[in-house]
Amino acid sequence: MFLMFLVFATTGCALYLWLLSELSESKTRLPGPMQFPLVGSMIQVITTHPVGFIAIDKLSQIYGDAMSIKLGIVDCVFVSSYESVKYFYGGENCVDRPGTGIWLERQFYKKIRVLSANGPSAWGEMRKFITQSWSSCGPMNRDWLRGILKEEVTSFLKYVEELASSSPGRVVPFKASGFVKVSFTNLLTATLVGKRHENYGDKKLLGLVAALDKFFRASRIGISVMTAYPWLRFLFGRYFGYHTQLESVAGIHKYSKELISQRRKLGVYKNGEPTCFIDAFLQRIESEKENAHLFSNEALLVTLADFYTAGTETSSNWLLFAILLLMTHPEKQEKLYQELRVKVGNRPIELEDRNELIYTQAVILEVFRWGKVTVNLESRQAIRDFEYNGRIVKKGTTILANMCRVYNTPNVWKDPQVFRPERFINEDGQLIKEKAERIIPFGLGKRICLGEMLAKDSGFMYLTTLVQKYRFELPHEYLRNPPSLELIEGITTCVADYNAKLVKRETNTQTICY
Ligand code: HEM
């Protein structure tokens, strides 16, 4: 009896103390759902909606454009308006990344990566180096990129045509892990070593794509649970996809190791100017022995893994979104094609054509708005305590963007659920700058996406050359049930695999390939 009384009394006291501290803390932190011991606000999230980003969006409509929420044991703030994203991502308070779980493991528990490295000495130095070397022999050098991009897009189109002409009714499968991703992965390899794989059946290339696919699929399984309780990976990693993630990271490293050893064997890096990113990195390893923790063989390996994970799924998902949206909105597709026909004609499209192609630019922006791709951007971490709207955001808090709200706010975006590129164009037929600026798929500020230029240039070239050559039509199978436009949750959002009928444009009887 006494024991029971003791248990009840202790539990009651603990609850009372928790309630007191919760009441006082909730007055100082940003508004948000109540935070319980151990589970934080998980119950409110789960019971709001089974899809995490929709649940967060719904809750943010109750608690406002900066909402504090505890996911398990992790303190988070979700920012849900363009202005608050600009403040949190664009400023100086949140320039670190949380980097837990698989990210730490992937970087051998050292501060050597770009994507989740913290502190200016780690990511700042690395970013500076990447920007410098990409500006001379990499995707930030337009002339350098132009050649590589032309080669890859030409091969891509050739492959698409082979696939279409060998498929019944020219119906081609567009799968998340299919040829679109293979091509973007190949493009990335080319930007790192200056040379692409000759064909899409290359075993090493396919091995890398399979490893990347496995990584992203496994991340979907336990992404919220593992974020909420990072230590769970040690106990139940098998069930939350953690072990699969580790296996896929090993696959990505294996491919990267081979690229590095090929460049080492060639030995170009030993003499004169480097001709590709890996050579530039190898040269730096040789010359900066004292900085070995940053410029080491391990660091090169994880940097390449960063590029492959950050750059392939995002880019290919975006193109898959674009084709699906154009296929299901044939009038928009026709408008896009007509712009290309009038302004470019049958000649090969060049990057320089983009400025003249206003409707095309509007389509690209609208696909980003509609599809999100990076629905939470990439997480950040507060490096100090700071004040926002009169409340305190504590050092170490994880910051995430809720792009669903940013891109769907009805007073900014009329009919946000409708795919309408025209929303970006004014009466004079010009792009509305203020609207275009609100599309921020690459983040903002000091840690803005390093591959922004590569992604924008390649996205433009792939999309326009495809539309110049083909009309995308819904195959018969969709007459009753159109393909789903629902966004599937993951590190990046995607759509379900779909098929498209590729009808060759009549004006393209002459070759338009490069
Ligand atoms: C459609 C394509 C892409 C999208 C939507 C995208 C989006 C993003 C976002 C939202 C971030 C976080 C930015 C922030 O915190 O403010 C990021 C970071 C990054 N992205 Fe991309 N990305 C894309 C393509 C690429 C490509 C092709 C690469 C090339 C390798 C790349 C490499 C990186 C790297 C290295 C970072 C980390 C930068 C840092 O932490 O300093 N991304 N990306």
TrEMBL record:
Any idea what this protein is called? Farnesoate epoxidase
Hydrolase found in the keyword field: no
What is the stated purpose of this protein? Answer: May be involved in the metabolism of insect hormones and in the breakdown of synthetic insecticides.
Q: Name one GO biological process term.
A: xenobiotic metabolic process
What does UniProt give as GO cellular component?
A: endoplasmic reticulum membrane
- What family does the entry list? Belongs to the cytochrome P450 family.
Q: Where in the cell is it found?
A: Endoplasmic reticulum membrane; Microsome membrane
Name its co-factor(s). Answer: heme
What Pfam families does the entry give?
A: p450 (PF00067)
Q: Which residues bind heme?
A: 449
The way it spans or sits in the membrane comes to: Peripheral membrane protein
Q: Which organism is it from?
A: Orchesella cincta
Which keywords does the record carry? Endoplasmic reticulum, Heme, Iron, Membrane, Metal-binding, Microsome, Monooxygenase, Oxidoreductase
State the source organism's domain of life: Eukaryota
User: Do the record's keywords include Heme?
Assistant: yes
Query: Which Gene Ontology MF annotations are present?
Result: heme binding; iron ion binding; oxidoreductase activity, acting on paired donors, with incorporation or reduction of molecular oxygen, reduced flavin or flavoprotein as one donor, and incorporation of one atom of oxygen
